[in-house]
Amino acid sequence: MLENQIGKRYAEALSGNIADTGALEKALESLQAFGDALKIEKQLESFFKHPSIATEKKKAVVQEICSRLQVEDKVSNLLVLLNERGKILYLEKIVEYFEKAVDRRLNRARVHVTSAYPLTNENIDRLKIALNKILGKTILIDTEVDESLIGGIMLRIGDQVADDTIRNRLEMLKRTIEKEEVA
Question: What is the reported pLDDT for 183?
Answer without folding.
Answer: 62
